[in-house]
């Protein structure tokens, strides 16, 4: 079953939870879970769950592999190494190889710059335990 099989397209939270569970198997327990932690900005994860995972990752049009390629490139360009670490693991789940992830980093060097690519390489190595 894919995230595109969500029965109610207006349920962005449900679609987001399904997409996140598929991208990060074993990270989130089954059932309805509360992602809030009672601290400053606690709604940020819920906002991401509905707006990014539910409205974007659960869309038809691109598969998870393609979305991972795009996401890696964007995160490298933004210098968002913390998010990149998670998305390197998601990219592996979505079928990218370590060599393909390295190619995304190499390619980004030409567009986002060598410092961004070097930082991305460091983040990817950390995410992969290398």
From TrEMBL:
Name listed for the protein in its UniProt record: Carboxymuconolactone decarboxylase family protein
A UniProt-annotated Pfam family: CMD
Domain Carboxymuconolactone decarboxylase-like: start-end pairs: 53-126
SUPFAM superfamilies reported for this sequence: AhpD-like
InterPro entries for the chain: 4CMD/NDH-1_regulator (IPR052512), AhpD-like (IPR029032), CMD-like (IPR003779)
